[in-house]
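ok so i was messing around last nite and threw this chain in just to see what happens. nothing serious, just curious
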Amino acid sequence: MNTSYARKVGIGIAAALMAGTALVSGAAQAADYGTPAGSGFTWSGLYFGINGGIGWATSRHTDTTGATTGDFDQSGGLIGGTVGYNWQMNNIVLGIEGDWGFAGIDGSTTTSCAVGCKTDLTSFGTLRPRIGYAFDRFMPYVTGGLAWGLIDAGQPGFYNSSWEAGWTVGAGVEAALTQNLSAKLEYLYTELDDGGYRVAIPVNASEKEMSILRLGVNYRFSGNPFGN
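result:
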């Protein structure tokens, strides 16, 4: 990981911590309204939600002769849906969560590519286990698993789209606003396999060192909706 990217990741983590503090404060205030989470609150159950945020990454186009653009920056937004299930055992919360949605994390360069080489992540999803520790209605967690994305890459007249798989790891905080409604803040670090296209010869287009910072709102169906 280069120094510039490490600095960006550090900024993302710092922003997550500050926003997480604000989220906890907001949850505490929200507990005074509507249906309170209360001391009998449990995180167990099926939930659905929406999420949205920002992402930034680096890309590099390299052809089979070794000619390369070098690393260039990508950035943009993403929005999608979430589904998951939690099991709470005392303070430990185990869960599985999936999400998928639209993305617009793109960037381009003219370095060694006068017409402009571009990489664009247009769709993004994950499937991840989560492990959290519940402080009543506040839960920090860690997560990691499978990631995939649709990468559009190329230069004018020579573009290609391909689905690429990879991995992701991250952490977040979730706070219950009522018995069923919660809000979360999450940071994910992701690496996807390379995309590619062909001009006169094949060109490899990497999508690497991607960071995502996003907010989400979930609605949880308390208990086990499938029965015992």
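not much to say yet. The chain has one domain: 3-222.
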